[in-house]
Write a structure and sequence with these properties.
With 138 residues, the chain is of the alpha+beta class. It contains 3 helices and 10 strands. The chain has a 5-stranded antiparallel beta sheet, with helices on one face. Strands 9-8-7-6-10 form a 5-stranded antiparallel beta sheet. Strand 1 and strand 2 form a beta hairpin. It is elongated, with a radius of gyration of 16 Å.
């Protein structure tokens, strides 16, 4: 299944609270749209109506990473509150294990998962419904 086209992405973005702005072409012949919501920012580059490249910057992170264009729709539809609840770097506890959030990922079924690097050096990807802020009352 491919990624939706420019008009569909722009419509979905508007319906789910994302602001959409256009950036000038960088001489590459592509149209670049920037989708922002809360501290999220995705840039999608289009060749006519078809998406070709995408990047993402998540809350709490200063780095911009590559994003598969087929994943953009999941981020556009992701639960706004849950996607912004635990920015990268946030200290959390899951199952009594403390750690820090590294990455946030909405899933196709509407869940939002975070990559947690636990203090014991293990890694997990719990749902945001299974973690809480470190030091918060249970």
């Amino acid at each position: 299944m491919g990624a939706p086209g420019r008009m569909i992405m722009t419509t979905k973005a508007g319906l789910t609270g994302w602001a959409v702005t256009s950036e000038p072409s960088y001489g590459d012949g592509l149209t670049h749209l920037v989708f922002t919501r809360d501290d999220w920012e995705m840039t999608v580059s289009f060749d006519s109506q078809a998406p070709r490249y995408a990047t993402i910057k998540q809350p709490g992170s200063n780095s911009i990473g590559a994003l598969s264009v087929t994943m953009v729709d999941q981020y556009l539809r992701g639960n706004r509150q849950r996607m912004s609840e635990f920015p990268a770097g946030t200290r959390v506890v899951c199952g009594g294990r403390p750690g820090a959030v590294s990455y946030i990922r909405p899933t196709p079924d509407g869940d939002v998962r975070v990559l947690v690097r636990y203090d014991d050096r293990s890694v997990g990807e719990p749902s945001t419904t299974h973690i809480q802020l470190e030091g918060a009352a249970a």
